[in-house]
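Ticket reopened. Same input as before:
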Amino acid sequence: MNELRHLVDPLDLSFEETLRLLDLADSIANDRTAFAHKCEGKILATLFYEPSTRTRLSFESAMMRLGGKVLGFASAQNSSASKGESVADTVRMVSCYSDIIAMRHNKEGAPRVAAQYARVPVINAGDGGHQHPTQTLSDLLTIRREKGRLNNLTIGLCGDLKFGRTVHSLIKSLVRWEGIRFVFISPEELHVPSYIIDEVVKPSGCEYKEVRTMDEVLPELDVLYMTRVQRERFFNEEDYIRLKDSFILDAEKMKLAPKDLIVLHPLPRINEIAVEVDDDPRAKYFVQAQNSVYVRMALILMLLNIEPGLFEEETVC
Amino acid sequence: MNELRHLVDPLDLSFEETLRLLDLADSIANDRTAFAHKCEGKILATLFYEPSTRTRLSFESAMMRLGGKVLGFASAQNSSASKGESVADTVRMVSCYSDIIAMRHNKEGAPRVAAQYARVPVINAGDGGHQHPTQTLSDLLTIRREKGRLNNLTIGLCGDLKFGRTVHSLIKSLVRWEGIRFVFISPEELHVPSYIIDEVVKPSGCEYKEVRTMDEVLPELDVLYMTRVQRERFFNEEDYIRLKDSFILDAEKMKLAPKDLIVLHPLPRINEIAVEVDDDPRAKYFVQAQNSVYVRMALILMLLNIEPGLFEEETVC
Amino acid sequence: MNELRHLVDPLDLSFEETLRLLDLADSIANDRTAFAHKCEGKILATLFYEPSTRTRLSFESAMMRLGGKVLGFASAQNSSASKGESVADTVRMVSCYSDIIAMRHNKEGAPRVAAQYARVPVINAGDGGHQHPTQTLSDLLTIRREKGRLNNLTIGLCGDLKFGRTVHSLIKSLVRWEGIRFVFISPEELHVPSYIIDEVVKPSGCEYKEVRTMDEVLPELDVLYMTRVQRERFFNEEDYIRLKDSFILDAEKMKLAPKDLIVLHPLPRINEIAVEVDDDPRAKYFVQAQNSVYVRMALILMLLNIEPGLFEEETVC
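Engineering reply: fixed in the latest deploy. New output:
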């Protein structure tokens, strides 16, 4: 009997398992109809204590594209949490109603608790400022499909590198590959936290540098990963106006970038990428949205053991 | 390859295309099971920035009756619009998750913008006070199924003819048929706008008249189309009380009407049709709700090109 | 032609029909895959004017496990009720969109009104403090599956016996079996209403007693049915603190109970059952959640006449 596996942290998957997942996602992208009935009779529960249309609809589309069905809630106000029920009790209940759970929660660690009590696999669909593993996997798939590799890449990460959870997760995952070089592009106030540098980047042996403007590094990048600079992170309005323009990508800046650069963004964007960039063939942020469905399809198949042989026996938890 | 078609305005369909759509809706109504698997593997996204249970559930039922699946949101508060995302970005994202989109939006023109950016067909499920084309198509189907024709009819339109978008859309569509005669029944304050008379009714050559009470014209009608008189349209409470009774249909008034009259209402009704009228065989407003599912089934099949040959090549946009 | 049947009150089913429903639920529990396609092409509408994640998701899971689909709304704010539509009009509309309706409403009697106007079967999914028949049927199924019988049982009901609707419904149903003995365990302020004693328990000939603490009766129970003691039922905070501990089940108290006791709770629990009890094999409240799906599957099959022969002809209403 296989033990139950969950995905709470992107590193819950070993390097080998991550590769197999990306391979499976590729197979799905290349022949979607071959997977159209794999989850018939299966139910995904989407428990979104915090609203997130993008992530929820991507998960729901993934399950439906596999032939499965979906139930759940889109915000906590319609959930039994409002009656004071614990996450542990809710997931034990929902384990009776579904075959796999995708949970988004405003509290860090809630999906880990859920995984302890659930009798079906639990996928973390984002917990507070903590982890968002399926976003990271979508990023990895997009880079690999667009660049042909995940090693030997210079990757610029731009914007709010202090609070942006997708950036931290992506760094932790990318250091598993050879020859990764990071360029951190952020205002002083939003630079990448020192624990990420000291505990993740340095021990991995990856090269890195920190800069304060996008222009100076654009020519050397293979990948530019943009993030939102949220107004509420700044202490005053002047700071915001002064700084945000250094971190906005437009057609003018794109002229500085290599022809084979790819531009990613976890979306939604507000104004950090000008809409004129959308027609540039190097803009891949809407391709990312498509890849997010393939990654989630692969993950559902993997956790439900419908595509067997994806997990390493020794890492079963 | 067929170009992508959308339905934002009822007149996006040519007269011939409208007839073919109504024919298909008829076929569905007559043999629903023949269409039960036509959309297997397809996903409809219902993006309702403004809540509308009736329209949303009708669309969802239509897709499910075709064997397809549904995802989406029922109000803007649970959507990424609350994070400041543009309609253009949202529909590009949702194009990755679904095969066809039904959008309701409080802003006029939003579905037209959506159609420009979507990579899948977009159906306008109502935009502000502007258009609601599937309501109009349901009205046309109901009239044709109940009266056997769409030409040579005297059609009374009663209630709020100034702000009621369903009425304006219906007028614009009906003038395409021969021998239509309009009777506009409304309080002075809510009469049909002059641009509708001058730009739509007069150029079509249709006969029309305007009256202030229902009683005087009931005997001559083939169709009575009732609408809500919304309290908030009036300047004061007295006006509301004085006027609303002239536009309420009850069993007493029904005695004045021909035996083969049909009564329609886009629903929900508040009190403009007394419940005692529901049992009158001439009341067809719940039949309309049923027909709305058939029309939406036909439209989904048409826009997804699952029932081919419905579009005129020369009008592909 | 069969007449339309609804389930508004648990007693809408005769004793014989209840037994057949429980038998069918057992069959489903024992071989779920045999029922996986029974409702293909059918649509359940979940009309939840009052949010209830647990009940809604259980119904949705039930329909999906039968191969059917689900549409609806999770709270009144997204429904046409907010536009002033009557329940009668809403269910006539929804009868056009679906094959069966599950309705939860904050007003007592709303599901009965719905059943009068609907053209499809209506299931009461809870109306105010009144009835919640599918909860009662889940309780009965769990007792029968865990104890092997529904007669000759001593059943302790603990907590808020005054306002708890699940308790009243359960009592009314259990008196139909032979040899039932009730032990009512509640604070004086929340004792079982006298009309339940006088009109239900006494006429049935069932033995009963009322006590004020759990400890004194635990050794004699076959079934302990726990309920929430809601803070807002008490006049002051001191009363609440003083009383609630007499009605909290913990590992210490479980030592007093027979080895073959079963503990039930309609959930959600707040703190009236300590989490340490969850690992006790006598704790069956999460099994109840699973059984609730089987009961609802059986009920849907019964009301849609997909499993024929379940209704007694003479009781068709």
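Residues 39 and 77 of chain C are 30 Å apart (CA to CA). The beta strands of chain C are 43-48, 69-73, 100-105, 122-127, 153-158, 180-185, 207-211, 223-226, 262-264. Please confirm and we'll close it.
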